[in-house]
Structure formats: structure tokens, C-alpha cells
Amino acid sequence: MFSITKIIIYGNRFDSNSDKCPTLDEMVYSLFMKNTCRIEDYFTDKEIIKILCNKRALASKKVHDSHFLRNITSGVRHPNPKTKEIYNYFPPRKDWIRLNLDERNTRNTNALELNRIQLERTVWRFKLKYQNKPEQSPEWLTLLNKFLIEIRYSVFFDENIRLNTPKVILVVKNKEKNEYRPISSFLLKDLIIIGQVSKYLTNCFDPLFLNCSYAFRSAENSQNRFSHHKAVKDIIDFRKGHGNNIFVAECDIKNFMTVSIIK
After folding, report:
1. Which of 203, 197, 234 is nearest to 216 (CA)?
2. 3-class state of residue 222 by DSSP
3. Within a 13 Å sphere around the CA of 28, how many CA atoms are in the beta-carbon half?
4. Hey, how many other C-beta atoms are within 10 angstroms of the C-beta on 69?
5. pLDDT along the chain (263 residues), means of 10
6. Which of 54, 105, 225, 237 has its Cα between 20 and 30 A from that of 167?
7. What is the DSSP letter of 172?
8. Is 124 exposed, middle or buried, given 0-12, 13-18 or 19+ CB atoms closer than 10 A?
9. Which residues of 125-159 are buried (b: 16+ CB within 10 A; e: fewer)?
10. How many angstroms separate the Cα of 38 from the Cα of each of 1, 6, 13, 212, 232?
11. Listed residue (168, 166, 170, 171) closest to 186, CA to CA
12. Is 10 helix (H, G, I), strand (E, B) or coil?
């Protein structure tokens, strides 16, 4: 069913109470059979629209910040909103639903989050308004609905799906040593697919991680919120019971994230 991550698993269910060390196949089989999350739930209109609204609000913030910097300094390049694909899937700002003052004060959040909420409400109001008369939909809504369908088709039905080669941007890491960190910039559609599949797999595999593992944990773990705050707290608690003679070893895999660029 899921053409991007076709996983063929053999073997018996993994018994967590058994002393026998399970094979990888047994662990994955047990994990996916017992996991309640469904890949379809990560590609609903609601999920994708939430992602798009967040990216659109972020794009607005970047434009606002560039305006501010341009007014107080020189040499700042002003981004052109018309070149961003994300703008095609939303109405002009004058058509956005505005939160009233009381709701703004009640939520007590930042402008980025407020814009995201306003955008979501706007999109759903338009979708409901034109759901029975799609031929009268504004152009941006037609493009948005088409984009949503394209994403789901690529994920669930396209047997020959291929992600487009990302644009690699080199960010200066150490100017004196002429070192750069490659950053991959994917197309919007590919970015959403990669992000949602990653989120799904993270949530599926999260139960296999030990409580002493803090990186790349699921944000949906309601029992333990793994973050750098929790890591620091656990270190402090550990130190209280083991004295001050504690050593930390920092390890890294050399060039693990290095991308080879072939010209």
C-alpha cells in the first residue's frame, strides 16, 4: 500500500518478556503490528494544510524581518514573495481571517503562531464555502486542492515515485579553513513527503529507544518529553547520587553529514 517504504517482514512476533535476543525482523514486525498510528493519518488534508500554513506564516515573517533590516541598514537583499511556491496556495493577506483582540490576548502567543492560526481558519472557511461548487473556487484554492491530491497520489499510488535532486547550498562553517556545511533545499512537495514519512517512522520506532537516549525522539511521547532540558535535568539528578567525579565523552562521526557534489 505504501509505495515509498515497502517493508516486507518475516518471522514471529517479538516477545518483550522473552530472554531471547530478538532479530531485527522480529522487532520491526512487532513494532509495526502493535503500533496504532497509520501512515494515512500523516497525509490528511488537515495535516498537510497545517504544515503549509506554518511555512506560509514563516515566509511572511522572513519578509517582515528583511523589511526591518533594510530600513536600519544597507546591503540587505529583499526577498521576492512571488518567487516562492508557498504563496500560490493561499489568499492575499487582506482576505485572511483576523483574530479579535480578546482571543489574541487569551492565546498569549507570538505573531508567527497567530498568523498560522489565522491562515488555517481562512483556508478551512474557503474550503467549506466552495466544497459543493469547486468550479467557483478562487485560483489559489484550486491550486491548493490539486497540490493535496498530488501529494497523496505520490505517496500511496505512484509506484515510480522519485524525489527530485535537491539544490545544495553551501553555508560557511570555517572561513579560514575554507570549510562549508552543505544544506539541501528540497522542492516543497518533496519536503512535505520526507518530513511526514520521517515523523511517522520516528513515532513507530520511538518505543524501541531507551530512556537514556535523547536525540531524535518523538515529540508525541506524552509520558517523556525528550529534549535538552530533560537531558540537563537527568544529568543533575545523576550527579546528586554519584558525586562530582563525573566525566563526559563527546563523540562524533567524522563527515557523517557530508554530501559529495559531483559536477
Report:
1. 203
2. coil
3. 11
4. 14
5. 39 43 60 68 96 93 71 62 81 92 82 91 96 95 97 93 90 86 91 93 84 81 73 86 77 63 39
6. 54
7. E
8. middle
9. ebbeebeeeeeebeebbeebbebbeebbebbeeee
10. 12, 14, 19, 27, 33
11. 166
12. coil
**Amino acid identity for residue 42 in this structure:** Y
DSSP string, 60-102: HHHHHHHHHHHHHSSSPPPP-GGG-GGGGGS--GGGS----HH
Bridge partners of 105, per DSSP, are none
Q: Which residue type does 120 have?
A: E
What DSSP character marks residue 223?
S
**Cell numbers representing residue 152 in the block:** 497523496
Global pTM value: 0.74
Cell numbers for 143: 491550486
- Side-chain-side CA neighbours of 135 within 13 Å: the count stands at 0
And the C-alpha cell for 244? 562530582
DSSP structure class, residue 184: E
- Beta bridge partners, 181, equal 171
Residues 6+ apart with CB under 8 A from 119: 53, 56, 57, 90, 96
Nine-digit cell string for 141? 484554492
C-beta atoms surrounding 227 within 10 Å? 13
